[in-house]
Amino acid sequence: MGRHLTDEELIDLLYEIKSPESHVERCEGCKERWERLLAKRQAAIPPLEIPEELLIEQRRRIYERIERSAARIWSLRPAGAVAAVCVMLLAVFLSVPRPDQEETALALAAGDSQLFGEIYSMVESSEPPPIQPIYGLFEERQ
Ligand SMILES: [Zn+2]
């Protein structure tokens, strides 16, 4: 059967530093000490059941902190907050369909083609006089 296990060896067993010792299973004295040690550890480990009130209290405090930090952000960046609200209002305003939107779009399209035509004629006629001889050069070479 060999010698009995020392307390230190039992503790090593407890924390699984040593592989399970078969001596503990064979020797009544060591088995008893081993079981006492296990019971002690079990008693030392706090119960895993967390009271409901503690969880509620914890959640309440988390929400409080979130609200406090949010309030701080709002107070620190009023300009940013105002800008965000403006962007939101603009988005809502733009997303609301207007009855005359289609007509406006058609009118705009007509106006656009007219405008582009005008711009095009302006570009065509706005060539500076010195550019004309250059065109002449290109035509000569062809
Ligand atoms: Zn023993």
What's the layout of helices and strands?
Blueprint: H1 7-14, H2 22-26, H3 28-44, H4 52-76, H5 78-95, H6 101-125, H7 131-141
Helix pairs in contact: 1-3
Residues 4-5, 23, 27, 29-30 line the site of zinc ion.
Report what the structure shows:
The longest helix is centred in the middle third of the chain and has 25 residues. By secondary structure, the protein is mostly helical. Among the domains are: 38 residues, no CATH class; 37 residues. The protein is built from seven helices and no strands. Helices cover 77% and strands 0% of the residues. It is elongated and about 115 Å long. It binds zinc ion. Zinc ion binds next to helix 3.
* Distance N to C terminus: 114 Å
Largest sheet, described in full? none
Question: How do the SSEs run, as a string of H and E?
Answer: HHHHHHH
Shape: elongated
Rg over C-alpha atoms, rounded to the nearest angstrom: 43 Å
Structural class: mainly alpha
What small ligands are held by the chains?
Answer: zinc ion
Query: Which percent bin holds the helix content?
Result: over 70%
Number of strands: 0
Compute the number of helices.
7
> Low-confidence segments, ≥5 residues, pLDDT <50?
none
**Mean pLDDT rating:** 79
* Strand-residue proportion: under 5%
